[in-house]
Write a structure and sequence with these properties.
5-stranded parallel sheet; globular; binds fructose -6-phosphate; alpha/beta
C-alpha cells in the first residue's frame, strides 16, 4: 500500500509530479493559454463585480492561501486578504455580495474553515473552494469547487495536497485574469512554466532526497531551526518550518527575512540552523544581506539557491539547489526539498512521521 516506500509521507512526496499534473490536466490549453474551469459557476458579470477576495484556511492550506495572495494581486489586481479560519470566524468582517471567498482545505471537513465559509456565504459572498476530497462538507456548501485531484493523502503531514493547492491557485488566478482581461499575454508564458513543473519535480526529486539525507545527518541534533524567505517564498518558509516541527518535534519558526532585525536575530548563534530560501528573483540581493547577517552571528546557513548561483554556496554551510523557474511556480518547486529535509530529520530521530503525536488528519472540531 506504501508502494515500496517506508512511509506514506515519503510516497506522497514522490507522488507530487503526478499530483500537480492531475490538478492542471484537462484544465488548460498551453497553445491558446485558455483555462477551463466550468466548476466555477460564476457569470462573467459576477466575476467583473468582485472587489475583494478572502482566502480562509488552516495550517498548510493557509500557507497555500498566502501564496495565492501574491498570485491573485499580481495577476488579477483584486485586493486579497488571507485569514486563518479560526481568526476569520471571530472577527468583524467587511464582506458583501462583491466579495469572493476562497476556502482552501485538503479534507473539506475542517471545522473552522467550514464555519468561516458559512459566515462569508451568509454575508453574501460567492464561495469557490479549493479542496481535495470529493463530496466533502466544504465542497457541498460552496457555490463551486476546484478539486485538486491529488489523490488520497494518508500521511498526517500535508505534502502533495499543498503543491496541488498551489497549482489550483495558479489556475484560478489565470482564469480570473482572463475573465477580467488582465494580462492575458503574461499568463500564457506562465502556463507553459506550470506545464513543465511535473517533469522538473520528477528530475529533481532524487537529487533533493540525497542532499536532504546529508543535511539531516549534520543537523538533526539541533533543537531549533529558523526558516527565512521573502515575497512569494515567505509562505514557503512558514510551511517548511511547520513540516519540521510537526513530524520531528524540533522547534522551528518561519519568518519573513526582513523581520530578522526586529527580533529573531537575537536567537542566532552557532547552534541555530537557518534555512534560507534565496532563489534568483527580485528580492535575491535582500536575501543575500540577510544571510550575511546570520553568518556574522555564526548561524549555520542552509541555503536554497538557483542552480548556477556561486555566491551563496560559498557563505552557506549547506546548499540545496533549485532549478531555474519563474517566480509563480517557484513555491511549488522550493517546497519539495523542504518536505524531504523535514522527513529525513524526523526519520533520523526515530519519529513516527505518518502519525505524529497529538495530530489528526482531519480537524473536525474547533
Ligand atoms: C499540516 C497539516 C495541517 C492541515 C490543516 C488544515 O501538515 O496537515 O496543518 O493543513 O489541519 O487541514 P485541511 O486542509 O484538511 O483543512
Amino acid at each position: 500500500e506504501k508502494g515500496g516506500f517506508r512511509h506514506f509521507m515519503l510516497k506522497e512526496i514522490y507522488e507530487q509530479p503526478q499530483a500537480v499534473l492531475n490538478t492542471f490536466r484537462g484544465r488548460l490549453n498551453p497553445e491558446t493559454g485558455e483555462i477551463s474551469l466550468p466548476e466555477i459557476s460564476l457569470l462573467p458579470e459576477e466575476i467583473q463585480r468582485i472587489s475583494k477576495i478572502f482566502i480562509v484556511a488552516c495550517g498548510t492550506s493557509y500557507h497555500a492561501g498566502l501564496v495565492g495572495k501574491y498570485l491573485l494581486e499580481r495577476w488579477v489586481g483584486i485586493p486579497v486578504e488571507v485569514d486563518l479560519a479560526s481568526e476569520f470566524r471571530y472577527r468583524h468582517l467587511l464582506i458583501d455580495n462583491h466579495t469572493l471567498a476562497i476556502p482552501i482545505s485538503q479534507s473539506g471537513e475542517t471545522a473552522d474553515t467550514l464555519a468561516g465559509l458559512r459566515m462569508a456565504r451568509q454575508m453574501g459572498a460567492k464561495i469557490i473552494s479549493i479542496c481535495n476530497v470529493l463530496g466533502s462538507t466544504i465542497t457541498r456548501e460552496s457555490h463551486g469547487t476546484i478539486y485538486t485531484h491529488a489523490g488520497p493523502e494518508i500521511g498526517v503531514a500535508s505534502t502533495k495536497a499543498f503543491t496541488s493547492q498551489l497549482t489550483a491557485l495558479l489556475l484560478l488566478t489565470f482564469y480570473l485574469a482572463q475573465a477580467r482581461g488582465t494580462s492575458p499575454e503574461g499568463c500564457r508564458e506562465l502556463l507553459s512554466a506550470l506545464v513543465a513543473v511535473p517533469g522538473i519535480l520528477e528530475n529533481w526529486l532524487p537529487k533533493w532526497h540525497k542532499t536532504s539525507e546529508e543535511i539531516a545527518q549534520r543537523f538533526y541534533k539541533a533543537r531549533n531551526f529558523l526558516y527565512l524567505g521573502r515575497n512569494i517564498h515567505f509562505p514557503i518558509a512558514l510551511e517548511g518550518a511547520l513540516k519540521l516541527k510537526e513530524i520531528s518535534y524540533i522547534h522551528a519558526e518561519g519568518y519573513a527575512a526582513g523581520e530578522m532585525k526586529h527580533g529573531p536575530i537575537a536567537l542566532i548563534d552557532e547552534q541555530m540552523p537557518v534555512v534560507a530560501l534565496a532563489p534568483k528573483d527580485h528580492v535575491y540581493e535582500k536575501m543575500v544581506s540577510n544571510i550575511e547577517e546570520v553568518r556574522s552571528r555564526r548561524g549555520q546557513v542552509i541555503s536554497l539557491v538557483t542552480e548556477g548561483d556561486e555566491t551563496l554556496p560559498e557563505v552557506s554551510q549547506a546548499t540545496i539547489h533549485l532549478p531555474q523557474v519563474v517566480p509563480e511556480v517557484s513555491p511549488i518547486v522550493a517546497t519539495v526539498p523542504l518536505q524531504l529535509l523535514a522527513y529525513e530529520i524526523a526519520v533520523t530521530l526515530g519519529c513516527d512521521v505518518d502519525q505524529p503525536r497529538n495530530l489528526a488528519k482531519s480537524v473536525t472540531v474547533e
